[in-house]
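User: If only I could read backbone structure tokens as easily as an amino acid sequence. Those tokens are not coordinates but codes from a learned vocabulary of shapes. Could you go through the record with me and say what the backbone is doing? Here is the record:
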Amino acid sequence: MSSKLITERFRAADLVDIVKPIWIFDQQGHIQEGDPLQNMEPKWTYRSGLNALARGMARSLDIRQRTRIGHLQHNITGWSLFDGLGHPAGEFECVLIAVPASHALALIEASLVPEVERESICKHLRKASYRPLISVMLGYRPAPRVRPYYALVNTDKAHALSWLAWEHEKSPERVPEQAGLLIAQMAPHYSREWWQVPSNDLISDVIKRVATLLDEPLFSPCFTDLCHWRYALPAETTDAEQLNVIALPLGLAFCGDAFVGGRIHLALEHGIAVARQMN
């Protein structure tokens, strides 16, 4: 389903299938070829970034950005939405909530929802939990040496690095000419341990770990940046069917990775399925 959305209905001119494969590495840093069958499957991305799909799906829709919804109020005709200051943000027949389960829980707890349904909805949402993730960007000029893969993934979940991608291998438009960009996604255990560490110290540590894994002198990037994703990867999911059986009669529903795990295509397909239920 999600493949057809990408390649047909919302196909973009800058859609590319990444040519190189994904290889794997273990706790000791031993790098080897990945699964040949999995690497035969398309690896879709966009020259302009993954949000190209979201932009395509949003085309012709009435999208309100930078409006934080503080609470909902159930009424005879559906739902009234209010922003974080309590100002009206719109009247709607139905509401589909697609934010992380922890955010959805806080929203419902702050909302005027029939008490019995409210307690049951919150009980289900509390079952979901997330792992944090620190993402570090390392830019180089000249680019790191060419490799037979575009990304590495840690298979035993024991290394500090979980995923390492050569962004300039996905498409050269992602970086300036003659430059290269590595994206290091750190493992959940590392991310928790280093969450409060000052940025400069954290980046320095990641640089050393990347250079060691690759056995390449990548100690002096010309550009660095990092991002902390507190709700990056679902650790425990909750049952969307049971939850939406309670919520749908109110014109309310929930979808997202809290119910299907941390894969984009699964969350996308789940959103479509729940939207069809609402219709």
User: Anything to note?
Assistant: The two ends are 18 Å apart (CA to CA). The first strand starts at residue 15 and ends at 17. The chain has a mean pLDDT of 94.
